[in-house]
Amino acid sequence: MGLAPTIKSISVDEIEPIVILDRLCFGGLWSIDSYRRELTNDNSHFIGSSIDPHLEPETAGLIGFGCFWAILDEAHITLLGVHPRYQRQGLGQQILSALLTKARAIEMARATLEVRASNDGAIRLYEKYGFQTVGRRKKYYQDTGEDGVIMWRGGLQHPNFTLVENQPLI
């Protein structure tokens, strides 16, 4: 990749770069107030991927991010986005891996998410990390009316848990 990104937790101090990156990745999915609520919520966990801010000054070096909500023993992945200029370089894998590692560290047993039915690249990424399709939410995405594919994986607390391609559910 050559970028040498740093994976780290994101704090409310980084809200402006997050909102800019949200616009670039999702067209403005969440408002600044929504991000402020999420970043100050103890059940919400944000991970970011950063490079030298001089290389990407618009987002203060933030080039990718992900978030999950800790609900009982389940990590509900709510966001995973990579700056369009840095997609297809393995950053999505790094962020997903960091999210699952964090979920395991705080004793989550499973992970779930929804993804646009047309987002083949994301679906392949999630399958690579052991997620399986378990259902559909009809017209889940309000902006397009597109279905959401519900994906799930268990085994986060299994003693043999590793982040390997095509890991079977345990």
Q: Outline of this structure?
A:
The chain is of the alpha+beta class.
List the helices and strands and how they pair.
Blueprint: E1 6-9, H1 15-26, H2 32-39, E2 44-50, E3 62-71, E4 74-82, H3 91-105, E5 110-116, H4 120-128, E6 132-141, E7 146-153
Parallel strand pairs: 4-5
Antiparallel strand pairs: 1-2, 2-3, 3-4, 5-7, 6-7
Tags for this entry?
alpha+beta, 170 residues, single chain, globular, 32% strand, Aminopeptidase, 4 helices
Structural notes for this entry:
Helix content is 26%, strand content 32%. It is α+β, with helices and mostly antiparallel strands and 170 residues long. Helix 1 packs across helix 2 (32-39). Strands 1-2-3-4-5-7-6 form a seven-stranded mixed β-sheet, with helices on both faces. The termini are far apart. It has one domain: Aminopeptidase (3-Layer(aba) Sandwich), CATH 3.40.630.30. It contains four helices and seven strands, in the order βααβββαβαββ. The longest helix has 15 residues, at 91-105.
Look up the CATH topology: Aminopeptidase
Q: What would the principal axes of the Cα set say about the shape?
A: globular
Q: How many domain modules?
A: 1
Low-confidence regions: 165-170
Tally of DSSP helical segments: 4
Q: For the residues shown, what is the average pLDDT?
A: 89
Q: Classify the secondary structure makeup into a structural class.
A: alpha+beta
What share of the residues lie within helices? 25-40%
Tell me how many strands there are. Answer: 7
Write down the CATH class.
Alpha Beta
Strand arrangement across the biggest beta sheet:
1-2-3-4-5-7-6
Global Rg: 15 Å
Amino-to-carboxy terminus distance: 32 Å
**What portion of residues belong to β-strands?**
25-35%
What's the CATH architecture name?
3-Layer(aba) Sandwich
| Major sheet details | 7 strands, mixed
CATH homologous superfamily caption: Gcn5-related N-acetyltransferase (GNAT)
SSE order, as H and E? EHHEEEHEHEE
